[in-house]
Amino acid sequence: MATRYSQKCCEKLVDAGAISTLLKLIRSVSRSIPDQEVLKHSLSTLGNLARYPHLLEVLIDCHGSIETILWELLRNKEEIYFIASELLKKISSSRKGIDAVRKSPALLRRLHNLVEELSRKAHNEKRNVRGPITRENTDRRLREAVIILRMVTEG
């Protein structure tokens, strides 16, 4: 909560090494419900830190940060997906972030594959008689992935 309201708190946390600690924590969580709550709060905290341009650069420079966040985007389908999506959009809003994502062709390929998979899913769900909530969620996930992919590829 403190990172949501205070730049000073964010700066103190970053100075204390919070970004690398949070990334390590994110990589170590399991699929259990309590661990998913920890993951959600860890990503939200990184998102709060990334609101400040100078701290966003520290996040981008942290080894493995982009890969870790993208992995959570690929691996989650619900709330955590959208938290990771917002964080990747913040990263992709800076030139340094775009360059960091572009340095890894594997990450770009995975992001592109995600967009293709969600496009296929959205198309199939429109043909099938599934619940509108499922269709709406897939469409929303697709829109987020397309925005990120465009931000990264078009700069």
Describe this protein's structure.
By secondary structure, this protein is mainly alpha-helical. It is built from 10 helices and no strands. It has one domain: Leucine-rich Repeat Variant. The longest helix has 23 residues. The protein is globular.
CATH architecture: Alpha Horseshoe
What is the ordering of alpha helices and beta strands?
Answer: HHHHHHHHHH
Spatial shape: globular
Note poorly predicted spans: none
CATH class: Mainly Alpha
Number of strands: 0
The amount of helix comes to over 70%
- What structural class do helix, strand and pairing data support? mainly alpha
Task: Tell me the distance between the termini.
Answer: 32 Å
Strand content: under 5%
The radius of gyration computed from the alpha-carbon positions, rounded to a whole number of angstroms, is 16 Å
Count of DSSP-assigned helices: 10
What structural keywords apply?
155 residues, Leucine-rich Repeat Variant, mainly alpha, 0% strand, single chain
Please give the structural blueprint.
Blueprint: H1 2-5, H2 7-15, H3 18-28, H4 33-49, H5 53-61, H6 65-75, H7 79-92, H8 95-102, H9 105-127, H10 132-154
Helix pairs in contact: 3-4, 4-7, 6-7, 7-10, 9-10
Keywords: Calmodulin-binding, Cytoplasm, Repeat
ARM repeats: 17-50
Pfam families: Arm (PF00514)
